[in-house]
Predict the structure.
Amino acid sequence: MSRSDVLVDADWVEAHIGAPGTVIVEVDEDTSAYDKGHIPSAIKIDWKKDLQDPVRRDFVDKTGFEALLSDRGISNDDTVVLYGGNNNWFAAYAYWYFKLYGHQNVLLLDGGRKRWELDSRELTTDVPSRPKTSYTATEQDSSLRALRDEVIGAIGKRNLVDVRSPDEFAGRLLAPAHLPQEQAQRGGHIPTAKNVPWSKAANEDGTFKSDDELTTLYRQDAGVDFGKDTIAYCRIGERSAHTWFVLHEILGLANVKNYDGSWTEYGSLVGVPIELGEGK
Amino acid sequence: MTEQSGCGAPAGGVTITKDKAGKEAIVEGHVLRDGAPVGTGYARLLGTGDEFVAEVPLGEDGGFRFFAAPGDWTLRVLAPGGVRAECAVSADIGQITKVEVAV
């Protein structure tokens, strides 16, 4: 994988609005954003209602994912172009999720909804109608997703990249600063984790920094060993999906996993080691 | 009490059900152009050295809200047309710091 295989810019998306075989998908937690205006021809997926099991804390299963994509009119052969707000956090999460279930042709709009809006490009409230399909997913690709026991076993052995803000990493906050401070039972970070906030990988307009800048950020500045396997985490797994995208899809590192349980799970586990402060 | 649905940034920021900060250090306000709300744009909260802290899209009323750590912050606004504006804000536990940004 490299940047050109996984990222497209707004001009490319404008040129592919309504193109056969291309499905533009907005993924936001705040679905009212889509309802107030979206890229022409785009459909929406709600990361929580559509992608999370309504009872257990887990993803919808393979059958559920197949039903979702069939209902939204997405075929196995379609190129899915994802974009969203929050600097593409949830779009990157959906990208990772689509890859988890084996969809091959997925792209991310560089800069997402923010860049599109700041460019004053067209938004519409028209909701497209797409004929249903019969989508077939693969079993989850376990090489992309880390679960808690694997994370605990990775302490001191693999790269652990905590992509939350420095205040969350140090244990001073439990959630990003635009949200109330609740959630996990304890603050802090997983011992040996490097703190590379997701935001350092993005420019102010939401686009990703250059390959050279990203390499310098993770390898030189943060000391992430590119020769080792890596697990990225945040609070609930969507900011770390952004970092997973950078490391695995843009920079092409092998063996990068996203720990979607992240701090809301780890910070509530009984008996696991936690480190406070700025990291060592 | 607060309302929360996850880890995203809803337009304007998460609502608070009472006009009280409780244990939070809240920074909130509106972005205006010639007295009218700027409904498309982004508010970013930055720390020392422009370190990114948080960002929310502006609400239809130009509103934004952050739940910050106590301290001094820079508030930067981005809007279409290359519009940028910023100001210094302070946050403290139990306080709602109100800010009005003109662009």
DSSP finds no helices and eight strands in chain B. Chain B touches chain A at residues 2, 4-11, 13-14, 23-24, 40-42, 44-45, 47, 51-57, 60, 65-69, 78-81 (CB under 8 Å). The radius of gyration of chain B is 13 Å. Residues 1-7 of chain B have pLDDT under 50 and may be disordered.
